[in-house]
Structures are given as structure tokens and as C-alpha cells.
Design goal:
This protein is α+β, with helices and mostly antiparallel strands. It has helices at 74-77, 169-213; strands spanning 5-6, 27-30, 45-52, 79-86, 99-102, 127-135, 138-142. The strands form two sheets. Strands 1-7-6-3-4 form a five-stranded mixed sheet. Strands 2-5 form a two-stranded antiparallel ribbon. This is Uroplakin-3b.
Amino acid sequence: PAPPALLPYVPRVPPAALPGKLTATTFALERPCCVFDRHANASDTVWLAVAFANASAAFRNPPSRADVPPYEQLPTAHSYMTLETAAATYACSASSPAVLRVGGDTLCGGQGGRDPCNGPLPSPGPYRVKFLVMGCHGPKAETRWSDPILLRRAGSPSTIDPAPVRHGSDVVVIASILASLGAVLAAAVLCATGAEAWGSLCHRDSGTGAFARRSYRTHHIPPALPQPLPPGCRCSPPGLGCFAPRPPGPCPAK
């Protein structure tokens, strides 16, 4: 059979900042839009070949779908193929997500139930990938290999120091100075507040004492003089007034 056409397209990780673009077991790829239109029919499929970077040169395109290297053989064969997709999905007129996720299927790895499997990648790599158009009679077109893709490395628990971080003597001195300045400032604020409150209290007490020392002299009111009894009133003790008529004549002397 004729060798597949080599397309100038190079797969790559999206340059924009994306959540989860590179993880310890997965990575994202730009979707190849308008790349296979001239080389694929409606019945053709597009595969993604994944290989360790140092084994990509030894990768051989499978002659048929039955010969596609599975995901489970990655540790021994150092390559596999996944993400089988209809070629029409990558057409210019197709509306589909702009990003592919490699290694995002956690349910197929090691179970042998799904084919092809897009299981998590077992190591940081680095990896290289390329797209391959497969028809009824084998490969029809392929892209170039990508640049090496290195995944994130998970930190080992043995590298974590459980002891607290020890600060240098300069840091301790600066911290002590700042603490002393804070204490002085707090004391100054308390003194100013206490002095203001004490002054207000003293002012209030002085006003009360001045009021207590004041004396007021009332006007002198002379005693009331006895008023003569009206005629016809009987004599009564002083201050009781007239309470009954009396007979004519002077009142007897008391």
C-alpha cells in the first residue's frame, strides 16, 4: 500500500492558560480543525498515536484497525493509539470543543472493557503525539509528531520536611522590635485616653462643688401685724379670727 500523506500540521498543547492543561496523568491538545478535509472520507476515522518521546521514531503505523496498539501495552510497547473519532468531527463546518483531553478516562484502564482506552498516563513522560487518518484499507494521512510534552510531577511525601521552618536571627530581631513598638503604641493610646477621661471627671467635680458652695439669701419678710376685728365679731384667741357675733361692748381683757 502507498504510504500515508504527511500533513504539515503539528499537534500542540494550547498556549492559553487553561485549568488542568497539564496534570500528573493527563494533558490537553488543540483540536485539529480543517486539517483532514482533503484526505478523509465520511467513513474514515482519525486516531491519536501516543508514544514516549524517545520511542516515537520507532513507532509503526498499524495496517488495519485490528492491529492498533492498545493502551494496556504502553509500558512494554512504549506507544498506543486512542481517541478514535469520525473524520467529520474535525471538519471545518463541525462545531465541537476546541480541546481534547488525553488520559482523561479513569474507568477503562486495566479493565479491558473499552476499546480504545484513553486511560491515565502512567508517568510524567515526556510524550509525543500525532494524528493518523485510518480508512478501510489502512492509514491514509498523518500529521507530524508533536514536541515533547512533559507532565507535572507529584511531590513525594519523603521530600516534605515536617520540622517547622527556622528563621534567622535577623528575622527574630525584627519581630522583637515590631512587638516592642506595638506595646509602646498601645500604652501611649491608653495613657492619652485615661488622661482625657480624668480631666473630664475633674471638671465635672469642680462644677458641682462650686454649686454647693453658693448661698442664696431670701428677702426679709416682716411678721404680719394683728388686724383689728371687724365690728360684730366675738373675741377669740389671737390668730383664730372671728367666728361668731359678739354682744356690743368692749372685749374682756385677756
